[in-house]
Amino acid sequence: MNIMLFHSAYGPRPAVRAAADRLRAAGHEVWTPDLFDGATFETVEEGMAHQDAIGKDELLRRAVLAAAPYSERGLVYAGFSLGASIAQTLALGDEKARGLLLLHGTSDIAPNAAVDGLPVQLHVAEPDPFETDDWLSAWYLQLGRAGADVEVYRYAGAGHLYTDPGLPDYDEEAAEATWRVALGFLGTL
Predict the structure, then answer these.
(1) How many Cβ atoms are within 10 Å of 69's Cβ, its own excluded?
(2) Per the database record, which ranges form the Dienelactone hydrolase domain (predicted)?
(3) Where are the alpha helices (DSSP H) in 112-152?
């Protein structure tokens, strides 16, 4: 499978490279575009300030430019938090998308979004300050109405970015469970 994996607001941290290596070891081809020009951050607040300074439109432009050379292959879009939001936007706009793997994040869904059975898997903490229960319920229903085949996995007690061992949110048990399920999902695409 060809996977375009986008980093979180923390930037292209070692955990993103480690995730890409894990996916490659499972036989996938993986690209990890750097949307922040190498900048990484120690706090989510710093990362979000940098994200805001770049702007949503520019981040999406960078992501589209990174994915464009590979989209003909039929990409699985994936990402962490902010990167998941970007991955979702690109996947819903790419008729050749093979799947969508969201780790720790979602995004708004355009009212006219339409996909034909796009496989989507979301892994998110429970509770998650950025992905509230009400938001996730509405997101799930909207994506289903758009034609996606959606699976949601919640991890009680885990922090927001629980798959990154370099952050305080890290939860080894939840992270390993996420990767087991996600690799199984990718294996079906």
Answers:
(1) 9
(2) 3-188
(3) 133-145
